[in-house]
């Protein structure tokens, strides 16, 4: 695979002008994130055909042409499992690659396998074993070694052949629009505001409404602080500390210190801010508090959940997909809770083809089971 480094604004502009209007571009990134909240972009790989272009973000400063490429509606952006790449582009460029064709998602919808890594998919489809020796190397070092550049080039070299093959198979099976819709859903989910990790904290469902409000506020503060300091969330306060502070609601520096939830450094640095946050929560009226988090499913609910997953496997067999491509694991419980009358917001991925082919049939089966 031939490759070429792009290390100047002029070279980047010339490259992107040359391939303006291309039907597709393979995209990958290399980045570092060892002690930061945000990924530190170290290299962007592009491939329009027979050659890989390695864009050095430490050398280029005029990024408008690259932003335009990522947003060009006529050029499909081909990536493999791009969740981390989305973080890179959002932070570095302020834009996301669209339209998006995720080769991992396409493989699942074509029943080739669930969550296939790039190496495994290339081996299955192209018969080539892609080397991975440079995965853990220092991508921010300069100059990059020839081995690093060759590795980076390989990460996009096979994406376009994969796209040609997978897109053709998807077209034959009527699934090309599904893959592109799932790409759009992934971008919508990335842009959507989250709960800052509240839903993943075990035992949070035991909290009353006021304590739940404290937990939401603490997790939101942690998120904002991690972003402002560019440090991992767990370096600010971990989940157990958020839960403990929400439960105990300390009202003084002494009581906060006695809980033993914060290290001396965290107590000194953030104690006053946390106490102020908790005090503000005490002032909220009852009607401003969030609802309690849902309790775990009862035995009947767990049996219904297993039935839902079995029905999904049957639908997947009919559609010729892996079951995991139909719904995220957490969505089965959401669907069941909706059926039981809980008012819950539907994820964007439940619209379009998935609504007709998956959601509607599963809801029908739930109604039949209940009758």
Describe it for me?
The chain has helices at residues 9-18, 64-71, 83-92, 103-109, 118-126, 146-157, 159-172, 176-191, 209-229, 233-236, 239-248, 253-259, 264-282, 299-319, 329-339, 352-370, and strands at residues 2-6, 24-32, 40-47, 51-55, 76-79, 100-102. It is an alpha/beta fold and 371 residues long. It folds into three domains: 2-191, Nucleotidyltransferase, domain 5, CATH 3.30.420.10; 198-288, DNA polymerase, domain 1 (Orthogonal Bundle), CATH 1.10.150; 299-370, Orthogonal Bundle (DNA polymerase, domain 1), CATH 1.10.150.80. A six-stranded mixed beta sheet has the order 1-4-3-2-5-6.
Task: Describe the SSE topology.
Blueprint lengths: L1 E5 L2 H10 L5 E9 L7 E8 L3 E5 L8 H8 L4 E4 L3 H10 L7 E3 H7 L8 H9 L19 H12 L1 H14 L3 H16 L17 H21 L3 H4 L2 H10 L4 H7 L4 H19 L16 H21 L9 H11 L12 H19 L1
Parallel strand pairs: 1-4, 2-5, 5-6
Antiparallel strand pairs: 2-3, 3-4
Helix pairs in contact: 4-7, 5-7, 9-11, 9-13, 14-16
């Amino acid at each position: 695979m031939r490759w070429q480094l792009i290390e100047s604004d002029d070279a980047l502009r010339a490259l992107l002008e040359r391939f303006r209007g291309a039907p597709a571009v393979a995209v990958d990134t290399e980045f570092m994130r060892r002690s930061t909240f945000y990924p530190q972009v170290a290299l962007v790989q592009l491939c329009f055909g027979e050659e890989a272009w390695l864009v050095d973000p430490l050398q280029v400063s005029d990024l408008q042409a690259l932003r335009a490429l990522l947003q060009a509606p006529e050029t499909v952006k081909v990536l493999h499992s791009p969740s981390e790449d989305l973080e890179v582009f959002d932070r570095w460029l302020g834009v996301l690659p669209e339209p998006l064709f995720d080769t991992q998602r396409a493989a699942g919808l074509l029943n080739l396998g669930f969550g296939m890594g790039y190496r495994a998919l290339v081996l299955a489809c192209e018969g080539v074993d892609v080397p991975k020796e440079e995965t853990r190397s220092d991508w921010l070092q300069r100059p990059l070694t020839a081995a690093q550049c060759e590795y980076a080039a390989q990460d996009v070299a096979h994406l376009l052949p994969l796209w040609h093959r997978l897109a053709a198979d998807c077209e034959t099976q009527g699934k090309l629009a599904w893959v592109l819709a799932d790409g759009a859903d992934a971008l919508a989910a990335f842009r959507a505001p989250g709960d800052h990790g509240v839903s993943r904290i075990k035992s949070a469902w035991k909290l009353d409404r006021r304590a739940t409000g404290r937990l939401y506020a603490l997790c939101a503060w942690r998120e904002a602080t991690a972003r402002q300091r560019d440090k991992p969330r767990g370096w600010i306060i971990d989940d157990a500390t958020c839960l403990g502070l929400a439960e105990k609601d300390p009202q003084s520096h002494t009581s906060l210190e006695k809980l033993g939830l914060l290290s001396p450094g965290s107590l000194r640095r953030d104690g006053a801010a946390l106490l102020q946050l908790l005090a503000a929560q005490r002032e909220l009226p009852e009607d401003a508090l969030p609802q309690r988090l849902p309790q775990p499913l009862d035995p009947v609910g767990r049996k219904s959940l297993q039935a839902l997953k079995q029905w999904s496997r049957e639908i997947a067999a009919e559609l010729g997909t892996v079951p995991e491509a139909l719904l995220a694991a957490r969505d089965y419980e959401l669907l069941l809770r909706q059926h039981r009358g809980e008012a819950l917001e539907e994820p964007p991925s439940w619209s379009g083809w998935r609504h007709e082919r998956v959601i509607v049939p599963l809801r029908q089966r739930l109604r039949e089971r209940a009758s």
